[in-house]
Amino acid sequence: MSNPAPACRQAILDANKRWPSRKKASDGIMGDARHQARKSDHNLGNAVDITHDPSSGCDGNVISALAIKDSRVTYVIWNHKIYSRARAAEGWRRYTGSNPHTKHCHISISTKSRNDTRAWAWVSAHGAPATPVVTPPPPAEASGGGDTPPTSGAPRPKPSPQSVPYPNVALRQGTRGPNVKRVQTRLDALGWDLPADGIFGPITDRNVKSFQRRKGLLDDGVVGPRTWSALFA
Predict the structure, then answer these.
(1) CB neighbours of 192 closer than 8 A, spacing ≥ 6?
(2) Top-tier CATH class for 178-232
(3) CA–CA separation, 100 vs 109, rounded Å?
(4) Locate the Peptidoglycan binding-like domain: which residues (predicted)?
């Protein structure tokens, strides 16, 4: 059963249909290496992450509020909170897992609902709150994981912008080193979802281009003086 549940695929398709220009950096169904190392509904294809992108209307507050009303759903994690079908009477509870889920809304479904491809409610959602309530995670946050009910931990503090001098060398796909890691860490703190491994690979390239578009810069994936300045202003 380790393949994406059709119901989870439908959740992504409906989000794409409702908000065709939305960002998808944190979308996902199947678990990555970090998920595979522990128990996670993603490993069975029974969970879906939908990227929080309020600028397009795809707001985690809207997605989560609609998801908890769907009978296919077993639990939802969003913005330091968790809602579980088994504990519905308690409503939203504080979530203290290692990943506070501020970049995406995590939705787990029941095994019996895997093939239920009814449209999800957000396909006809009327909009999102004008002001997003999400608190950006700190640079140390893991981009994957923490999507199972926690036993301990606490929310982490907000990141603080910092001025970092330009290294006088353009960074692009294939570059490695501490300056790449600084860029990755800063992007992660600003809401993009990527590992800070010091390797400028395809994921970093994609996220740099997304950042450049957001800032009205040439989206060439090269971190030169202007992109660096926009990142660390």
Answers:
(1) 25, 103, 207, 210, 211
(2) mainly alpha
(3) 19
(4) 176-231
Q: Cα separations (Å) of 204 from 39, 120, 138? A: 27, 31, 18
Calculate the average pLDDT of the chain. 81
> Amino acid letter at 49?
D
- CB contact at 8 A, 158 and 176: no
CA distances from 67 to 14, 70, 82, 124, 173 (A): 12, 5, 12, 13, 37
Sketch the domain layout of the chain as residue ranges.
Answer: 6-124, 178-232
Please count the other Cβ atoms lying within 10 Å of the Cβ belonging to residue 96: 16
Mean pLDDT computed over 109-130: 82
Six-digit token string for 188? 């992660």
Residue 43's CB: how many other CB atoms inside 10 A?
A: 17
